[in-house]
From TrEMBL:
Domain of life of the native organism: Bacteria
Record keywords, A-Z: Cell inner membrane, Cell membrane, Membrane, Protein transport, Translocation, Transmembrane, Transmembrane helix, Transport
Recorded family membership: Belongs to the TatA/E family.
Species per Swiss-Prot/TrEMBL record: Dyadobacter fermentans (strain ATCC 700827 / DSM 18053 / CIP 107007 / KCTC 52180 / NS114)
Lineage: Bacteria, Pseudomonadati, Bacteroidota, Cytophagia, Cytophagales
Name of the encoding gene: tatA
Record-level GO BP terms: protein transport by the Tat complex
Gene Ontology MF: a single term: protein transmembrane transporter activity
Name listed for the protein in its UniProt record: Sec-independent protein translocase protein TatA
InterPro entries named in the record: TatA/B/E, TatA/E
Subcellular location, record wording: Cell inner membrane; Cell membrane
Length: 66
């Protein structure tokens, strides 16, 4: 459901998504795509962890009386 929302915001339809996927396949090759996706997944996880840490630090600083 989240991916549908993102695609709706970007205004991409089925043909545009297909063309982007085809371009990525031709440009990088089938063997590199899993490696690229793995790197993208690791980057997203690092970003989520960093935002979680920042949120926790902000909440902790609001609770500490000074």
């Amino acid at each position: 459901m989240e991916s549908i929302t993102v695609l709706g915001i970007m205004g991409l339809g089925g043909q545009e998504i297909f063309l982007v996927a085809l371009f990525v396949l031709l440009f990088f090759g089938a063997k590199k795509i899993p490696e690229l996706m793995r790197g993208l997944g690791q980057g997203i996880n690092e970003f989520k962890n960093a935002t979680k840490d920042v949120k926790e630090n902000i909440e902790k600083s609001m609770e500490d009386p000074k």
